[in-house]
Specification:
This protein has five helices and eight strands. By secondary structure, the chain is an alpha/beta fold. Strands 3-4-2-1-5-6-8-7 form an eight-stranded mixed sheet. Helix 1 (2-18) crosses helix 2 (35-44). The longest helix is centred in the N-terminal third of the chain and has 17 residues, at 2-18.
Amino acid sequence: SAEFREFIAGVAGRLTARCDLKGKRILEVGCGAGEFLQLLCERSGALGVGFDPTVVEDRTLPAGAGEVRLVRDYYSPKYADVPCDFLCCLSVLEDIPKPYEFASLLRQILGRRAAGGYFEVFNAFRAFAAGETWSIHYEQCNYFSAASFQRLFSTAGFDVIASGGCYGDDQYVYVEVQTNADRGVQSYS
């Protein structure tokens, strides 16, 4: 919808300015067709790499002064050498069976790199409070509130720098994170 496109454009604009993404290397996990990543790269002149097993084929797309490379695969340690200054992941963690292990793995892959990040999921707390049972899907094996989503990332080794609700009566919750390059990262295996 036009309303959702305006929301996503606002998120991209806010992140580009707040996280100083100009000329950076952005990585998106669960990028779908790459629209959000492409928008971030268009606004910032960044180089982006998106990972998603549903990508039709590996390809590179123009994005203003930047570009986006889409990879038809899951993001995993085999891609640890892909440069990343900023990591994003929207509407994916609801569908990952072990979200703590996944967030910890992302943190481990980033290692001692200083990187920012943005993660966003469906706000289950709001849906449950409003009795919106139509919002519950069998594909979603995890449900988060703003507090539980923030705790997930802080426990996984990220520094949470902002969090809250967003989009139409807080339909989603988000966290903005930063890695602390000086802190050791617990290994996940």
